[in-house]
TrEMBL record:
The keyword Transport applies. GO terms for molecular function: ATP binding. It holds the Pfam family ABC_tran. SMART domains: AAA (SM00382). Keywords: ATP-binding, Nucleotide-binding, Transport. This is ABC transporter ATP-binding protein. It comes from the Bacteria. Residues 5-241 form the ABC transporter domain. The keyword Transmembrane helix does not apply. SUPFAM superfamilies: P-loop containing nucleoside triphosphate hydrolases.
Length: 392
């Protein structure tokens, strides 16, 4: 089973250039999470920080109970063995064939006999569909095959954590789908904690259990996929629709005048590009028939049930629908008076004054965004003290 990863108040800079500040999140064990955001927001830097290749100036990175920013070099070496990493280009050795590339971590980090190495290596090559290509060099194969070879190499040490940097890089949409299906199948087989860094919207809509977004050097939001896919926050909605209208600009955030001018253009009938945000969330990608069920799914269901009282109504309704409770989902989605939020209890529907604010710096007006009342639930599933909100 995968392990939990938690970051607390991480800050990373290169000289005077700040990359991101105060990044706090949790990657639940065995679940698939996605970190998205515009280009240049430090997503790949975050991956490299998790594995210890880069060192943040402040904060904690706790992996299976150990803060890797405080541990010794020997402890960090052992923790790194828990990771499998798929880089954008596969990062294969050009002078080695696919077999030797895949076997390299076993030869480097274990004392296994060559017969054992061959057995494991061929198993991983078969897992990614490269049996028959093991004698070919990276320069002799397609980008998709190099990506799969890099994935095979990442798997040979049976990682508890998989880090995947831009799985669609250099691939056409069809082969991107095959690659992401492979990641889901691998998660089903080895139950590893998986983090995918991407700005591919199709991956975002169909693959993860959880999603987070970086923007303006901050972690804007992190939570179950339904939280971001149903969000009305301007920056999240703009990113998921690919529209030019919103806080995200070509090279940096926009000022108010630019945003107002663009909105006026749209009102005058000019296209803003992008697509409409579809209200119904696309079904999540499932393991290929014949694969084991993903163990992380059951753990996630139990976890999000506990989170339900803290989520906005659209996210709550989407989760309940996914859990198979359609009537309750419909009740949750119905708004009532401003400023109230539901409390699910075994005794019936109640309301509580829980503000869900949208700060002005992200396109809001610092006012509560709404409230809702729901039908009774069968159990008492928690408090309302973890409302997702933008960070200051």
């Amino acid at each position: 089973m995968g392990v939990e990863i938690t970051t607390n108040h991480l800050t990373k800079s290169f000289g005077s250039r700040n990359i991101w500040t105060d990044v706090s999140l949790t990657l639940p064990p065995g679940e698939v999470s996605v970190l998205l955001g515009p280009s240049g927001t430090g997503k790949s830097v975050f991956l490299k920080s998790l594995i210890g290749l880069l060192r943040p100036e402040e904060g904690e990175i706790i992996i299976d109970g150990t803060d890797i920013l405080k541990c010794s070099s020997s402890e960090l070496y052992e923790i790194r063995k828990m990771f499998g990493v798929l880089f954008q280009d596969g990062a294969l050795f050009g002078s080695m064939n696919l077999y030797d590339n895949t076997a390299f971590p076993l030869r480097e980090h274990t004392k296994k006999k060559e017969s054992e190495i061959r057995k494991i290596t061929m198993e991983k090559l078969e897992m990614v569909g490269l049996i028959g290509a093991e004698d070919r060099l990276p320069g002799e194969i397609s980008g998709g095959m190099r990506k799969r070879a890099g994935l095979a190499r990442a798997l040979v040490l049976d990682p508890q954590i998989m880090l995947v940097d831009e799985p669609d890089s250099g691939l056409d949409p069809v082969r991107t789908t095959y690659t992401t299906q492979l990641l889901i199948d691998i998660n089903a087989q080895i139950d590893c904690t998986t983090l995918i860094v991407t700005h591919n919207i199709n991956i975002v809509r169909t693959v993860p259990d959880n999603m987070g977004m970086l923007f303006l050097k901050r972690l804007v939001m992190m939570g179950p996929r339904e939280l971001l896919l149903t969000s009305d926050e301007p920056v999240v909605k703009q990113f998921l629709t690919g529209s030019m209208i919103g806080p995200i600009g070509m090279s940096e955030e926009k000022d108010t005048a630019q945003m107002e001018a663009e909105a006026a253009n749209v009102a005058a009938g000019h296209s803003a590009g992008g697509v409409e945000l579809i209200e119904d969330i696309a079904p999540q990608m499932q393991p290929t028939p014949g694969m084991p069920e993903r163990k992380g799914v059951a753990r996630r269901k139990a976890r999000v049930r506990q989170m339900l009282p803290s989520l906005p109504p659209k996210a709550r309704a989407a989760i309940l629908k996914d859990l198979g409770d359609e009537p309750l989902a419909a009740a949750v989605a119905a708004p009532t008076s401003v400023g109230a939020a539901p409390s699910l209890t075994k005794d019936g529907p109640t309301t509580a004054q829980v503000p869900i604010q949208r700060p002005a710096e992200f396109g809001g007006n610092d006012e509560p965004t709404g409230s809702y009342q729901i039908a009774p639930d069968v159990v008492d599933i928690g408090s309302t003290d973890q409302i997702p909100r933008y960070r200051d």
